[in-house]
UniProtKB/TrEMBL annotation:
Keywords: Signal. The lineage of its organism: Eukaryota, Fungi, Dikarya, Basidiomycota, Agaricomycotina. It comes from Rickenella mellea. It comes from the Eukaryota. Gene3D superfamilies: 2.80.10.50. Residues 1-21 form the signal peptide. This is Ricin B lectin domain-containing protein.
Length: 171
């Protein structure tokens, strides 16, 4: 009877081991696809962008009255490049960026770590962190003010560099 108990225990152990070995972890999120997302700041300070010819505009903010901005997120050398859909070009932060520093937009891009947390993705760079809503957002159009006949330019990936005053309207 004792040997039957040992045999039963061994069979049960092997069954559990096989079931565990056959289980493959499937991540909840697939890799972030290229597209338009809204980024909401989770840091305790405001971040802004500065583009030649444009007044400094908030990119992401922590205050309730600061609306989130819309960005393209594009795979780039193992990370992601964040590009403003509002027409402020590529967004990047210098590696030695400090709290309150501005994001430079028209020189180069940097990579960001994007990881899924709960119902959102988090973008992390040094001590900066943003929550990314994975739901697609509407496309915006840009009307230039410095042309005789104003025209509307639809912003498409990989983004648009701008050096003039803009009227930004939602399509």
């Amino acid at each position: 009877m004792f040997s039957n108990a040992i045999a039963f225990f061994l069979v049960l152990s092997l069954t559990i081991f096989n079931a565990t070995a056959q289980y493959q972890y499937k991540p909840r999120w697939s890799p972030l696809e290229e597209g338009v997302y809204t980024i909401v700041s989770r840091s305790h300070f405001d971040l802004g962008v500065q583009t030649p010819g444009l007044v400094q505009q908030p990119v992401v903010g922590t205050h309730d009255n600061t609306p989130p901005q819309t960005w393209n997120i594009v795979p780039f050398e193992g990370g992601y490049t964040i590009q403003s859909v509002e027409g402020t070009g590529f967004a990047f932060v210098e590696p030695d960026a400090k709290k309150g520093d501005l994001v430079n937009t028209c020189e180069k891009a940097t990579t960001w770590t994007i990881s899924p947390v709960g119902d959102f993705f988090f973008i992390k760079f040094n001590n900066l962190a943003w929550r990314v809503d994975p739901r697609p957002k509407p496309v915006y159009s840009v009307s230039t003010r410095q042309m005789a006949a104003p025209r509307t330019v639809s912003l498409q990936p990989p983004g648009l560099f701008v050096n003039q005053q803009l009227n930004i309207t939602r399509q």
